[in-house]
Amino acid sequence: MKQIYEHYTEEDFDVWKILFDRQIKQFPTHASSTYLEGLKIANFETGLIPNFKETNQILKETTGWQLAVVPGIVPDYTFFELMANKRFPATTWLRKMKELDYLEEPDMFHDVFAHVPLLTNQYFVNFLEELSKIGLDYVGNDAAIQLLSRVYWFTIEFGLIQEDQGLRIYGAGILSSAGETKFSLSDDPPKHEFNIEHMLDTAYRKDVFQKEYFITESYEQLYKSIPEIKDLLARKTAEFV
Q1: Tally of domains within the chain
Q2: Is residue 34 a contact partner of residue 27, using CB atoms and an 8 Å limit?
């Protein structure tokens, strides 16, 4: 599959611009500085849907990663195999104007705008690659994949990070949602220190704002948590045998 850029409609460009502008207004005080740096590296602009050929060239020169076009949510094996080989699965379709605030399945704005900037950070992509290799080891083991998905969910999708300027967002699920961008940093939801075992024991829902969040100290801490993830996952899945 590939991106066919000339197939984008005027509505697609309008949707991208509206979503982009809405988020950019919040990001100086909400998004991780590393994400903001990556946004500049990726050269994303308001009103201009990214061209995957250009984005892939930038990623290749920065961290060696690439975008791999997928139609939507893919099977576990495909998902983990792609990222274990430094290829991030991304859709090329955009939500409709009537779906600006909620979408059941991730679209290109989520996959590209929210995820790609952090693919320029080496510690982050190293974590993503190694987490995916763990996933490949457990494909077919539903209990293990469910547990591993919690780590992915509370880091890659809904993670917060403590930076010098304060608490910031790096999770793509938050960065692509105007409402959750505000909510996640408010005083309402509980926020926990980075703790892999706690994540493994915490269920989540996809259809509501998260009830709790985990705060990492750095992207290096993410990467260095891989051995602990392997160990805890092995011990917890042994309980199901």
Answers
A1: 1
A2: no
What pLDDT, in 10s, does the model give residues 155-211? 999 999 999 999 999 999 999 999 999 999 999 999 999 999 999 999 999 999 999
Angle at 85 (CA atoms; ends 42, 7), nearest 5 degrees:
50
pLDDT at 95 over 70: yes
Query: Cβ–Cβ contacts within 10 Å for residue 152, how many?
Result: 20
CATH number at residue 163: 1.10.800.10
Q: How far apart are CA 83 and CA 148, in angstroms?
A: 15
Domain hosting 207: range is 5-238
Q: Which two tokens stand for residue 72?
A: 């939507």
Classify strands 213-216 and 160-163 as parallel, antiparallel or unpaired. Answer: parallel
Cβ proximity of 90 and 71 under 8 Å: no
